[in-house]
């Protein structure tokens, strides 16, 4: 398995891992703050000049930002064979495909679409070590289309599980999402349900598992990151 990180393009800059918190889970509030400041300033101007047509939308947008950047603490299942969903959203596809980057062979892929109303932090599917990362610039097509997988900006994450098998998580920016924030550095150890990343607004997440993984979800099913069992592996 590859263990070295690929050379990154000079433009645009790839997402820089935030300091990996060793105590507690990462916070999304620093990423919400710029939006909240702008909405608060505009709302203040609206109050000052009694432009209520401006105040109300700014208050509503501020409330939405707080809702969007919420960070619920996952409650992982107590099942040693369980592989949980890396993201909140709806399963859009389950298929067998090639994963030539980290697994270098056949894999079972589960695609998950995250709407602008879903939680947008991602969780570790199982106890693992992050062995490989690869950022790739690209387009910002609608994340509901599985064809965007090979064209949109994305961040690849290659893991080695505690059980010894390897798997890949792919974070894909969507039509609205324009930034992927990676919270865990290379070689970081994570437990099932630990938060690993954030994708701003609508996006897509894929997990590539070994061919012998037993898939437990179907297309159209809603899943919760760090909680819903999407597969099992011996």
Characterization of this structure:
The protein is of the alpha+beta class and 234 residues long. The protein folds into two domains: 29-68; 82-232, Glucose Permease (Domain IIA). The protein has two helices and 14 strands, in the order H-H-E-E-E-E-E-E-E-E-E-E-E-E-E-E. The strands form three sheets. Strands 9-5-6-7-11-3-2-13 form an eight-stranded antiparallel beta sheet, with no helix packed on it. The chain has a three-stranded antiparallel beta sheet with strand order 1-14-12, with no helix packed on it. Strands 4-10-8 form a three-stranded antiparallel beta sheet, with no helix packed on it. A hairpin with a 5-residue loop joins strand 2 and strand 3. Helix 1 (29-48) runs antiparallel to helix 2 (52-68). The longest helix is centred in the first third of the chain and has 20 residues, at 29-48. It is elongated, with a radius of gyration of 18 Å. Mean pLDDT is 83; it is low at 2-13 and 15-23.
Widest sheet: strand order? 9-5-6-7-11-3-2-13
What is the level-2 CATH architecture name of the largest domain?
Distorted Sandwich
Largest β-sheet summary:
8 strands, antiparallel
| Structural classification | alpha+beta
Helix segment tally:
2
Radius of gyration: 18 Å
């Amino acid at each position: 398995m590859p263990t070295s990180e690929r050379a990154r393009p000079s433009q645009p800059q790839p997402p820089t891992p935030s300091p990996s918190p060793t105590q507690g889970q990462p916070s999304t509030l620093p990423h919400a703050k710029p939006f909240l400041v702008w909405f608060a300033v505009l709302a203040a101007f609206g109050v000052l000049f009694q432009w209520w047509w401006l105040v109300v939308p700014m208050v509503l947008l501020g409330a939405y930002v707080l809702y969007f950047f919420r960070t619920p603490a996952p409650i992982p299942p107590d099942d040693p064979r369980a592989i949980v969903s890396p993201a909140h959203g709806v399963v859009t596809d389950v298929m067998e495909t090639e994963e030539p980057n980290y697994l270098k062979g056949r894999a079972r892929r589960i695609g998950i679409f995250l709407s602008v109303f879903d939680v947008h932090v991602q969780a570790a599917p199982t106890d693992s070590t992050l062995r490989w990362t690869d950022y790739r610039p690209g387009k910002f097509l609608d994340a509901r289309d599985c064809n965007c997988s090979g064209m949109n900006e994305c961040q690849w994450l290659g893991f080695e599980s505690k059980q010894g098998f390897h798997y890949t998580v792919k974070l894909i920016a969507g039509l609205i999402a324009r930034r992927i924030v990676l919270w865990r550095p290379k070689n970081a150890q994570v437990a099932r349900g630990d938060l690993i990343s954030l994708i701003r607004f609508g996006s897509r997440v894929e997990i590539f598992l070994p061919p012998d993984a037993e898939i437990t979800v179907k297309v159209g099913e809603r899943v919760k990151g760090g909680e819903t069992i999407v597969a099992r592996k011996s």
